[in-house]
Amino acid sequence: MQMESDEREIRALVDEWMQATRAGDVQRVLDLMTDDVVFLVPGRPPMDKAEFAAMSRAQAGGDAPRFDGSSEIMEVKVLGDWAFMWTRLTVVATMPDDRRVTRAGHTLTVLRKQDGKWRLARDANLLSTVPER
User: Fold this and answer.
1) Which residues of the chain carry a pLDDT beneath 50?
2) Bridge partners for 21 per DSSP
3) Buried-most residue among 51, 53, 62, 123 (CB within 10 A)?
């Protein structure tokens, strides 16, 4: 069934995003989003792909934090060439001095199928800093 195939592809996109983030592969992450992507993050104006790319590349230098985390998909709905999902996301940034910053919360993501592949088109994340124990 096409719906099941689309959901599998979307779940694979999330897995690839997480792997690319762990590897610091900025270009691979950028390839997983549409050119008109918009990110909504608390406390700042919407961010487009160019701003996301610049920020990601700046964080990928020699003194860059290492990123890890997990994404648990709670729901995926496919509506033709559009889909949405919400997730429970945890991101852990380990700084060069080994200090860790953990952010966790939910995301709401809109995806669009382009050239036969699912791509992230809109993302609203509600992550907040988790106190270290």
Assistant:
1) none
2) none
3) 123
Phi, psi of 98 (to 5 degrees): 70, 5
CA distance linking residue 101 with residue 132, whole number of Å: 8
pLDDT at residue 132, rounded to an integer: 76
Domain residue limits, the chain = 2-130
Helices vs. strands in the chain: H and E counts, helices first: 3, 7
Q: What is the pTM of this model?
A: 0.90
pLDDT, residue 3, reads 62
What local confidence, expressed as pLDDT, does residue 71 receive?
A: 96
Q: What average pLDDT is seen over the chain?
A: 93
Q: Is the dihedral of CA 50, 56, 59, 60 positive or negative?
A: negative
What fold is seen in the domain 2-130?
Nuclear Transport Factor 2; Chain: A, (3.10.450)
Task: List b or e across 41-74, with b for residues whose CB sees 16 or more CB atoms inside 10 angstroms.
Answer: eeeeeebebeebeeebeeeeeeeebebebebebe
